[in-house]
Design brief:
two-stranded antiparallel sheet, elongated, 469 residues, single chain, mainly alpha, 6% strand, 7 strands
Length: 469
């Protein structure tokens, strides 16, 4: 009718006027953010502070985590107590990992959730191109699609014993700063230091007491290093796979990005989780409390205590190998500094390392020839640093000699790392900002981890810890 049409026109005009009133203030706010510089804007987003020397920021109260995320588990033949789970879709999380309902879903009774991902890198040595392309760059891409927890695993850094305390402290801060410089966003990911969450060490001990030593003695890395070190091998080297299992299981991680060399440790994690669930979960856990009484985490007793995670293996091709041996992975533990390119290497150092790197005597350059691992490695490095496809790389470089290709590779690596190094310098010059990011990340991590370890203690028969502790 005419009245309804007039009413719709009136409403439309009101909305347009309202939008025009708010638009100038929105534009002014955006202008202030852009003129303040990227790091100041990020600091303001985290804590609202602008004092460069501030050691801490004010955070909103920590809310509860997504403890009510529903998962369906069915038995599988994968490993001891392995489980296969259907996909669990999740929506963006709020503060401290709290899941919130999607505004796009048509059914309010069926919220969408993000799956949770967890990963970390040791702060020993310098983070190199292999760590970056094999792990950290994948994290950056995953943080938009997952409820992401990324930590600097400083407890793992002392596994072999005899570490330098000053170096550990410095490299822990440096690694965290590189996470941010490489693109991790503290508004999308929880970035924290492993030792800042006490539950890692506590759950490790509880899992130790449920893990047969024979499982640990079968680990390939322990067998290799114990043969070379004999009686001097540390208990930490034997036990660190259990700490790794605790790292993963604390956060009820659905997905864990790992390299091929860590697949065995993830399978052990799955076995340990299955064993704990079998020994203490189900009806045994249900009988630990009164009828209808909930576990410390707030969920009902019974069923699985720990979530059995799945592996995420990055697509082949994102693997950067050693500069001195194209068949060996780029590694921090290699004593030859020339075997790797570190993210913080100077342009001069990068040029020298590439100039001296191992090549072969074949004509031209090519991918996928098993007899030419160095050609495969250096072309892959060029491909990753430039963002080109294999076909584009071969079209540009396939007919080159090594003397022509190495300068082109040097330029590609330097250009790719330059913005990361600039952001790293910016972060390190703002210690208050870095401290705030790590404090916020640890608070988010604690809100999830403490609930998990409390449920494990409850199922294993420990008294509930007083809230004051």
């Amino acid at each position: 009718s005419r009245r309804r049409r007039m009413r719709r026109v009136a409403i439309s005009l009101v909305l347009r006027v309202s939008g025009s009133i708010h638009e100038p203030s929105r534009a002014m706010a955006m202008a202030r953010v852009h003129t303040a510089g990227p790091l100041v804007a990020r600091r303001a987003a985290i804590g609202g502070a602008t004092n460069n020397t501030s050691p801490a920021f004010a955070f909103p109260p920590t809310s509860t985590s997504a403890a009510t995320r529903q998962r369906s588990c069915v038995p599988s033949a994968r490993g001891f107590g392995g489980f296969a789970r259907p996909a669990v879709y999740t929506q963006a999380s709020g503060e401290a990992g709290e899941s919130i309902e999607s505004t796009q879903t048509t059914s309010p009774s069926k919220p969408l959730f993000k799956k949770r991902v967890l990963s970390g890198v040791q702060p020993t040595g310098s983070i190199h191109l292999g760590n970056y392309f094999g792990a950290i760059k994948n994290w950056v891409q995953m943080q938009d699609d997952f409820d992401a927890f990324y930590c600097v695993v400083d407890l793992h850094a002392i596994t072999a014993g005899g570490h330098d305390p000053k170096e550990l402290k410095a490299s822990t801060r440096s690694s965290a700063a590189l996470y941010l410089a490489a693109g991790l966003d503290p508004e999308k990911s929880s970035v924290f230091v492993q030792s800042h969450v006490k539950a890692h060490s506590e759950l490790c001990w509880l899992l130790n007491c449920a893990t047969p030593i024979g499982w640990l003695e079968k680990m390939i890395q322990f067998k290799e290093k114990s043969r070379s070190q004999g009686e001097e091998v540390s208990v930490g080297l034997l036990d660190y796979p259990v700490l790794m299992a605790a790292d993963i299981l604390l956060y009820n991680a659905d997905v864990v990005p790992v390299g091929e060399d860590q697949r065995q440790h993830l399978e052990l994690t799955r076995d340990i989780a299955g064993r704990v669930n079998n020994l203490y979960g189900g009806n045994k856990w249900k009988k630990m409390g009164g009828k209808g009484e909930k576990a410390p985490s707030g969920k009902f007793r019974g069923g699985d205590i720990l979530v059995v995670p799945d592996a995420y293996i990055p697509k082949q091709g994102a693997r950067v190998m050693s500069l001195t041996d194209g068949a060996a992975k780029m590694s921090k533990s290699n004593p030859a500094e020339g075997s790797r390119i570190n993210l913080l290497d100077t342009p001069e150092a990068i040029a020298q390392k590439i100039k001296r790197c191992k090549t072969d005597t074949f004509e031209g350059l090519e991918f996928d020839n098993p007899d030419r691992p160095e050609s495969q490695n250096l072309l892959t490095m060029y491909q990753l640093c430039t963002g080109m496809s294999k076909a584009e790389v071969l079209h540009e470089c396939g007919a080159m000699r090594w003397g022509d290709f190495k300068p082109a590779l040097t330029d590609a690596v330097i250009n790719h790392l330059h913005p990361i190094q600039l952001r790293y310098k910016e972060v390190m010059e703002e210690p208050g900002y870095l401290d705030a990011v790590l404090a916020k990340g640890a608070a988010n991590a604690n809100s999830v981890a403490e609930k998990t370890v409390a449920d494990v203690r409850d199922a294993m028969g420990f008294l509930e810890r007083p809230s004051a502790l």
